[in-house]
Amino acid sequence: TRTMLPLLLLLLPAAHGIAEVGPRPALTREPSLEGVTTASTFVLDQPRCVFDAYGNAVIWLVVALDKDTSSFNNSAGPGTPETAFQSFPKSVRAYMTLNATLASYPCSKPAGDITVLRVGSETSCAQDESRPTCNGPLPGPGPYRVKFLALEGSVPVAETAWSAPIMLRTAKPLSSISTADSGHNAGMIAITTILSILLAILLA
Ligand SMILES: *[C@@H]1O[C@H](CO)[C@@H](O)[C@H](O)[C@H]1NC(C)=O
Ligand SMILES: *[C@@H]1O[C@H](CO)[C@@H](O)[C@H](O)[C@H]1NC(C)=O
Questions:
Q1: Ligand 1 pocket, mutate which of 74, 75, 80 (most atoms under 8 A from CB)
Q2: Model confidence over 20-33: pLDDT tens digits?
Q3: Is 83 in the pocket of ligand 2 (CB under 6 A)?
Q4: Residue 26 and residue 147: Cα distance in Å, rounded?
Q5: Among positive and negative, which fits the CA dihedral 179, 181, 183, 185?
Q6: Using CA atoms, how far apart are residues 68 and 91, in angstroms rounded to an integer?
Q7: 73 lines ligand 2 (CB under 6 A)
Q8: Does residue 192 line the site of ligand 1, with CB under 6 A?
Q9: 58: helix, coil or strand?
Q10: In the chain, what is the straight-line distance between the N-terminal and C-terminal CA atoms, in Å?
Q11: Signal peptide location in the record (predicted)?
Q12: 155 Cα to the center of ligand 1, angstroms
């Protein structure tokens, strides 16, 4: 059975019909940026040197809620109502955005080059149904998962695995924070009081 596992792993992508390349998309860690996640955006590393074997492909980013990733069909057409940002997540389970050719993701990193993607940065097209590939602000805290998908024409040829779940920031009202704090303090006071009483009893 030891030899079976690598064999199975080799056969899996073939059965799937499309090559899996790595690494999976991830939130940017280097350089450390302010606001890698905000209430409606997050920042990913570009998929550089990931799809090099697919020179004619256009690379798309697929965005889904964590719970809906398995229902995404790689044959779904970008720029169509079934993958339109404006219908996400109500009737569209995953939208496709940030299309780029391979030339946008060169392997080398010239100094000063921007090598990150901010998902959710385009507010102007968020309501514009004529722009289904809009990179519009994310509609809630998530959690989301994303993957890159390479299409040659309309044919999917390669993809990354889905990212780990990405949670966005939620604005916490100040009142809830201070309540939590005073609750903690009250608990501390209670414990201290009980300890003092126990000590008094022991010493008596
Ligand atoms: C994905 O969509 C294509 C084209 O619409 C269809 O032929 C195929 O059966 C679908 N695959 C799955 C797993 O639903
Ligand atoms: C991205 O897709 C849009 C809509 O399909 C298209 O107009 C645009 O030219 C594409 N850009 C790239 C770089 O492929």
A1: 75
A2: 999 999 999 987 88
A3: no
A4: 9
A5: negative
A6: 12
A7: no
A8: no
A9: strand
A10: 70
A11: 1-19
A12: 12
With contact defined as beta carbons under 8 Å apart, do 122 and 140 qualify? no
DSSP 42-66: EEEE--TTTSTT-TT-EEEEEEEEG
* Ligand 1 atom 3 nearest Cα: 75
**pTM of the model as a whole:** 0.78
Report residues of the chain scoring pLDDT below 70.
Answer: 1-16, 172-194
| Residue 122 CB partners (closer than 8 Å, separation 6+) | 134, 135, 136, 137
CA distance 58 to 153: 8
Nearest-5° angle of CA 80, CA 84, CA 88? 150
Centre of ligand 2 from the C-alpha of residue 106, in Å: 18
Which tokens sit at 161? 């695995």
Give 135's contacts (C-beta < 8 A, 6+ positions apart): 85, 97, 98, 119, 120, 121, 122, 125
CA of 67 to the centre of ligand 2 (A): 28
Instruction: Name the residue with tokens 């385009």.
Output: 122
Domains in the chain and their CATH numbers? 4-171 (2.60.40.10)
Task: Give the residue, by CA position, lying nearest to ligand 2 atom 12.
Answer: 100
pLDDT for 29-68, tens place per residue? 987 888 999 999 999 999 999 999 999 999 999 999 999 9
- Does the CB atom of residue 133 touch ligand 2 within 6 A? yes
